[in-house]
Structures are given as structure tokens and as C-alpha cells.
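Support request from a user on the community tier.

User writes: "When I paste my C-alpha cells into the form, the page sometimes reloads and wipes my input. The last time it worked, I copied everything first. Here is what I submitted, just in case something in the input itself triggers the reload:"
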């Protein structure tokens, strides 16, 4: 039960933190402690500057091959599993948040370059409420919406962060080859030319 709670907490934290939006970065740069109450630390220590920051866990590598999973198609509610991925081509998992500005920008750029990614499986995954996800492609990637190689999938049971990877920010991209092996991955922003190269190589 403890493990389930921590994964649920992580899922909520990821959905709240969404992506590294410029505005939040500006606020953080101005005062990274503005949202925190350090009164207890002030009592325990005469100088806040002498208190070392807590150690950050190292980001683990993503799984080296596509694991078994079950997500759900946002439009139909039908299950989507590893066996449903069309074979013989690269498969890209994009973990996203519908409200994330960088996720929206990446999707807009991909949509404008659909001809270059039409032979790649593109799977958009989110733990958000499907009601928030259903309009994501119509709003930010019209050229991707309804295409046979593009799916928007609801991760109802937080399987992605349990089986694939826990990213530090959105969007998080994972490129697997036709053999199911991880070829490339990154989190956050990346130029569209780099993205397209990574998707098709």
C-alpha cells in the first residue's frame, strides 16, 4: 500500500509540475524558496546558508526495451497493449500533460512535419483525466488527429512511471526501434530538427 501511495503522490506531483514553463523558472530563479516555510530550519540552524540542500535522487535510465503495459484509448476507452503496437517501425512514447506549454509547442511542430513521421508509431501518454486529454490533438496537433499511426492514451494505473521511466519534466520522449529496444530519450524542450532526426534514425 505504501508503494502505491508513493506512486500516486509522484503522479500527482508530475501532473502539477507539468513542464519547465519559463514563467515558473523565472519565479524560481528570483527566489527558489518563496513558496517554502523555513521557520523550523531557522530555529534549528543559526544560518540558512549553512544548511546543505537535500540530496537529489539521480534520474534512472528508462527501461531498455518496451515492457508489457495496458493503457486506454482516450476517444474509445478501449485498451491498448504492447501487442497492439504495429510492428516493423520505430515507436515513440511521448509522456505529456495537456496543460504543459512545451508539450503543446512540440506537438504543433510535429504536426507541421507529419509527412516526416507518418511511418513511425507515435503514442501520446498521459495520467491526466481523459476529459482534459481528448481535445489535445484537435487543439495543438490537428494534422496528427485521427492518423492511423498516432494514438492518445490514458495511463489510468500510472504504469508508465512504474514500468518505463520517471521523467523530471514534460514532455518526455522515448524512441524505441522496430526490435523494441530503446534508441533515444530526452525530457523537456528540444529543437524540431533534432526531434525528427531522433524519431526516424
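"...and here is what came back when it finally went through:"
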Amino acid at each position: 500500500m505504501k508503494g502505491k501511495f508513493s506512486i500516486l503522490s509522484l503522479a500527482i506531483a508530475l501532473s502539477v509540475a507539468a513542464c519547465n514553463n519559463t514563467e515558473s523558472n523565472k519565479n524560481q530563479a528570483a527566489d527558489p524558496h518563496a513558496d517554502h516555510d523555513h521557520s523550523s530550519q531557522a530555529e534549528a540552524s543559526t544560518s540558512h546558508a549553512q544548511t546543505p540542500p537535500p540530496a537529489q535522487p539521480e534520474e534512472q535510465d528508462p527501461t531498455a526495451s518496451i515492457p508489457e503495459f495496458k493503457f486506454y484509448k482516450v476517444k474509445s476507452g478501449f485498451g491498448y497493449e504492447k501487442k497492439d503496437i504495429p510492428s516493423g517501425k520505430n515507436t515513440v512514447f511521448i509522456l505529456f500533460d495537456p496543460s504543459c506549454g512545451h508539450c503543446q509547442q512540440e506537438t504543433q511542430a510535429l504536426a507541421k512535419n507529419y509527412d516526416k513521421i507518418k511511418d513511425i508509431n507515435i503514442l501520446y501518454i498521459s495520467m491526466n483525466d481523459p476529459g482534459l486529454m481528448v481535445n489535445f490533438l484537435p487543439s495543438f496537433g490537428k494534422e496528427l488527429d485521427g492518423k492511423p499511426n498516432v494514438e492518445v492514451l490514458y495511463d489510468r494505473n500510472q504504469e508508465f512511471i512504474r514500468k518505463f521511466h520517471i521523467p523530471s519534466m514534460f514532455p518526455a520522449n522515448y524512441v524505441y526501434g522496430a526490435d523494441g529496444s530503446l534508441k533515444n530519450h530526452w525530457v523537456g524542450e528540444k529543437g524540431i530538427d533534432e526531434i525528427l532526426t531522433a524519431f526516424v534514425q
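Agent notes: The reload is a front-end session timeout and is unrelated to the input. The domain at 70-200 is CATH 3.40.30.10 (Glutaredoxin). The longest helix spans residues 2-17. Escalated to web team.
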